[in-house]
UniProtKB/TrEMBL annotation, chain A:
<dbReference type="GO" id="GO:0016226">
    <property type="term" value="P:iron-sulfur cluster assembly"/>
</dbReference>
<protein>
    <submittedName>
        <fullName>Fe-S cluster assembly protein SufD</fullName>
    </submittedName>
</protein>
<dbReference type="InterPro" id="IPR037284">
    <property type="entry name" value="SUF_FeS_clus_asmbl_SufBD_sf"/>
</dbReference>
<dbReference type="Pfam" id="PF01458">
    <property type="entry name" value="SUFBD_core"/>
</dbReference>
<dbReference type="InterPro" id="IPR000825">
    <property type="entry name" value="SUF_FeS_clus_asmbl_SufBD_core"/>
</dbReference>
<dbReference type="InterPro" id="IPR055346">
    <property type="entry name" value="Fe-S_cluster_assembly_SufBD"/>
</dbReference>
<dbReference type="InterPro" id="IPR011542">
    <property type="entry name" value="SUF_FeS_clus_asmbl_SufD"/>
</dbReference>
<feature type="domain" description="SUF system FeS cluster assembly SufBD core">
    <location>
        <begin position="88"/>
        <end position="313"/>
    </location>
</feature>
From TrEMBL, chain B:
<protein>
    <submittedName>
        <fullName>Fe-S cluster assembly protein SufB</fullName>
    </submittedName>
</protein>
<feature type="domain" description="SUF system FeS cluster assembly SufBD N-terminal">
    <location>
        <begin position="148"/>
        <end position="208"/>
    </location>
</feature>
<dbReference type="Pfam" id="PF19295">
    <property type="entry name" value="SufBD_N"/>
</dbReference>
<dbReference type="InterPro" id="IPR045595">
    <property type="entry name" value="SufBD_N"/>
</dbReference>
<feature type="domain" description="SUF system FeS cluster assembly SufBD core">
    <location>
        <begin position="217"/>
        <end position="460"/>
    </location>
</feature>
<dbReference type="InterPro" id="IPR037284">
    <property type="entry name" value="SUF_FeS_clus_asmbl_SufBD_sf"/>
</dbReference>
<comment type="similarity">
    <text>Belongs to the iron-sulfur cluster assembly SufBD family.</text>
</comment>
<dbReference type="GO" id="GO:0016226">
    <property type="term" value="P:iron-sulfur cluster assembly"/>
</dbReference>
<dbReference type="Pfam" id="PF01458">
    <property type="entry name" value="SUFBD_core"/>
</dbReference>
Length: 340, 489
């Protein structure tokens, strides 16, 4: 059951609904009454440049669901994977990304679009031992779109995986990452931020399953919601039986800037081993009035003080991105979102 | 060195489950199974008015339409609802007029459990010791309620539910089922149809209940379920502290306990509700037997500045599935939840709370300490929500889990829903095992491993123990130790 299978079969009953525990706050079945026709192919020549094109050593495009099915990564690569949707149709794409032993991949993944499209993108990562992947996702979908991006990550022992998802929401936007952590000193960073306004909705869902000893996971999610937007975070850390010496930390912090905005969160820890150190923290609230007051009495105008505080709050996620160019793009995107 | 002596005695007194005995007492049962006739039978047995029977039958019909929920992180074989007795009561003629008419076997049972039913026994204790009134529920019926006279002088009504239906129908009609509606959930609905007894408390406006009230539940009969229903009303400005305890014999089959507790708190009133739950947990090796504890507990803070504090120590039952909740409807109302949940052997617990912020400037606090040992599983599941009108809502949640052993599991599943820009919610959770360093330190000071674990665990749960009334706190501390017996080494 998924948006992709509903698009494929045309069966509305395939859509996940609030009755499915993992979709309780992002109800697609209640939202979509009719499935649109399949999207028409997009001519790639007509597209302007993508946000990460200038940084990349290799560029791949998925336009209305059409694009490569397998990407092989060897050596060191900076790959810009651009996912573009246009029109009022429905489309789904599936891509396998195979990272060879010892390879180093910086994946700069971007989502953009125009129209009221329905789209699902499913990515499957296989990351071999000794390989290193940093995935930066900039999800800037159209306001009327309904989109799901699903990533399955399979990590070999001794590999490294870090991600930062920056999301601007859509009519419904879901970005899901499920990772199998092999332990064996593999390191995982699982960050994200959502910046929402208007009636946009964004759902960041992550699941990290520690299957063996000596694994580390660090997760930091920040959110800012204004107007009538809604942010959802579902984070699950599973430590399987025997996965001792796992160290997993998860934090989700959100700012609600307007009275009618909403944040829903479910940070879960499911622990089946005893020699572990796991923690999560979750805070939701308004901007700290005391900090604001302090800045104002130092002569900073209120609007500017607010902007600074919010930028600093979300900026923590951007600071953890290691690729410098991508960090700059992320920071500029953040500033533009907060300025508007 | 009294402390050392006490520790020695304490460790010696550790047994597997000391409440596992059966009382031989002449009992009366309803026929096995569940249908409308059984509901009528229970109602007739209790001499209930027509409206109560109708209420039950309505609940029974609704229950038939409901589906058994399966979302909790617990596994147990499907319950055959037709293979149980829904009513079991010690045989008496007219019902005891005074304590002297109560079956001596039952009195003996409560004595063995350490529950004083004779007022003079309570009074014979240490001078200045706090008095507390007891309502004793044995299988399906309340056998005795103490200190009724003294409470009546203060205007407090404390009696069994069946008595309240007879004596105070206006209060029962006004409040029963208003906090937990009949078809709230599968087990609450079943309870509404077949509930047999329970406690009823009404504290009139401005009255501070002069003593602690407590109910002691005991399942004794074989193959029977216990479905008690408790209703506590604190009228404007009133205060009451209520304790409940529960035990059951060791049996190979599972028994169902599906209770409903409703608390109504009006303006400026406060209810403190403490539970020490020690139902038979089943055999620690095989997991055979034990109580299924599926309880619905909810407090409705209807009045402004009302307050409810739930404190629970959950050590028993083979499967526990309960979430004492607070609906914070009144402006500036306060909800608190302090919980210790311990699972050992093959026990499973899925427990936590719900804090539903509806009024302005409502506040809540959740402190949950879960300990899992053996092959058990322990889940904290909680909901904190602020509705659009709950401006200024504030919550702080701390839930910590401690793991002892390689085969146990500890889960934390909090749900946080903030629907306005002026709510502030903070949540933190940790899961760790008992610190090797601390264990080593305590052991090199001369404590055995078992004692060291007890000491550290008691430190871990201290924040919650402090919330319990004094006498309960001492008992709970011992219970924590007993529950973890055999979990190390």
């Amino acid at each position: 059951m998924s948006l992709a299978s509903a698009i494929r079969t045309g069966d509305l009953a395939e859509l996940p609904s609030r009755r499915d525990e993992d979709w309780r706050w992002t109800d697609l079945r209640g939202l979509i009454r009719q499935l649109p026709a399949p999207s028409a192919p997009l001519a790639s020549g007509a597209l302007a440049v993508g946000p990460f094109d200038a940084l990349a050593s290799r560029r791949e495009l998925i336009a209305n669901g059409q694009g490569p099915a397998i990407l092989q990564i060897e050596g060191e690569q900076v790959l810009a994977l651009r996912i573009v949707s246009q029109g009022e149709g429905a489309h789904a794409a599936a891509i396998r990304i195979q990272v060879a032993p010892g390879a180093k991949l910086t994946l700069l993944e971007s989502y953009e679009g125009e129209g009221a499209y329905l789209a699902q993108t499913s990515l499957t990562f296989t990351i071999s031992s000794g390989a290193e992947v940093e995935r930066i996702v900039l999800a800037d979908e159209a306001e009327d779109a309904v989109t799901v991006s699903e990533a399955q990550v399979e990590l070999a022992p001794g590999a490294r995986f870090g991600q930062a998802v920056l999301a601007g929401g859509a009519r419904r936007q879901r970005l899901e990452t499920r990772l199998k952590h092999p332990g064996g000193h593999a390191e995982v960073r699982m960050d994200g931020a959502y910046l929402l306004a208007g009636k946009r909705h964004c759902d960041l869902t992550t699941e990290v399953t520690h299957g063996a000893v000596d694994g580390t996971t660090s997760e930091l999610i920040k959110g800012v919601v204004r107007d009538q937007s809604r942010g959802v975070f579902q984070g699950r850390i599973v430590v399987a039986e025997g996965a001792d010496r796992t160290d997993a930390r998860m934090g989700h912090h959100a700012l609600i800037l307007d009275d009618r905005a909403e944040v829903d969160a479910k940070p879960e820890l499911l622990i089946f081993a005893d020699d572990v150190s796991c923690a999560h923290g979750n805070t939701v609230g308004a901007l700290d009035e005391e900090a604001l007051f302090y800045m104002r009495q130092r002569g900073i105008p209120e609007a500017e003080a607010r902007a600074l505080l919010i930028e600093a709050f979300v900026g923590e996620v951007v600071d953890r991105i290691t690729h410098e160019g991508a960090q700059d793009v992320a920071r500029a995107w953040l500033a533009a979102k907060l300025g508007g | 060195m009294p402390a050392v002596k006490q520790t020695v005695e304490h460790v010696e007194s550790l047994e597997k489950y000391k409440h596992g005995f059966v009382t031989e007492v002449a009992q009366e049962f309803a026929p096995k199974g569940l249908n409308e006739d059984i509901v009528r039978f229970i109602s007739a047995k209790k001499d209930e008015p027509e409206w109560m029977l109708e209420w039950r039958l309505d609940a029974y019909r609704r229950w038939l339409e409901l589906e058994e929920p399966t979302w909790a992180k617990v596994n147990f074989p499907r319950i055959d609802y037709q293979d149980s007795y829904y009513y079991a009561a010690p045989k008496t003629g007219e019902g005891p007029k005074s304590l002297d008419e109560v079956d001596p076997e039952i009195l003996e049972t409560y004595k063995k459990l350490g529950i004083p039913l004779r007022e003079q026994e309570v009074l014979a204790g240490v001078t200045g010791a706090p008095k507390y009134a007891v309502d004793a529920v044995f299988d399906s019926v309340s056998v005795v309620t103490t200190f009724k006279k003294e409470l009546a002088e203060a205007g407090v009504i404390f009696c069994s539910m069946s008595e309240a239906i007879r004596e105070h129908p206006e209060l029962v009609k006004k409040y029963l089922g208003t906090v937990v509606p009949t078809s709230d959930n599968y087990y609450a609905c079943l309870n509404a149809a077949v509930f047999s007894d329970g406690s009823f408390v009404y504290v009139p406006p401005g009255v501070r209940c002069p003593m602690e009230l407590s109910t002691y539940f005991r399942i004794n009969a074989e193959n029977s379920g216990q479905f008690e229903r408790t209703l506590i009303i604190a009228d404007a400005g009133a205060y009451v502290s209520y304790l409940e305890g529960c035990t059951a014999p060791m049996r190979d089959e599972n028994q169902l306990h599906a209770a409903v507790v409703e608390l109504v708190v009006l303006d400026d009133a406060e209810i403190k509700y403490s539970t020490v739950q020690n139902w038979y947990p089943g055999d620690p090796e095989t997991g055979k037997g034990g109580i299924y504890n599926f309880v619905t507990k909810r407090a409705d803070c209807r009045g402004a500045r009302s307050k409810v504090s739930w404190t629970q120590v959950e050590t028993g039952s083979s499967v526990t599935w309960k979430y004492p909740s607070c609906v914070l409807r009144g402006d500036e109302s306060v909800g608190e939840f302090y919980s210790i949940a311990i699972t050992n052997g093959r026990q499973q617990a899925d427990t936590g709370t719900k804090m539903i912020h509806l009024g302005r400037n409502t506040r809540s606090r959740i402190i949950s300490k879960g300990i899992s040992a053996g092959k058990s599983s322990n889940t904290y599941r909680g909901l904190v929500s602020a509705h659009p009108k709950a401006k200024g809502a504030r919550n702080f949640t701390q839930c910590d889990s401690l793991l002892i052993g390689k085969q146990c599991a500890a889960h934390t599943v909090p749900y946080i829903e903030a629907r306005n820009g002026q709510a502030v919610f903070e949540h933190e959770a940790t899961t760790t095992r008992l610190s090797e360093d601390q264990l080593f330190y305590v052991m090199q000071r001369g404590l055995s491993q078992e004692e060291a674990v007890q000491l550290l665990v008691n430190g871990f749960v201290k924040d919650v123990l402090q919330e319990l009334p004094m006498e309960f706190a001492v008992e709970a501390q011992k219970l924590v130790a007993i529950s973890l017996e055999g979990s190390v080494g």
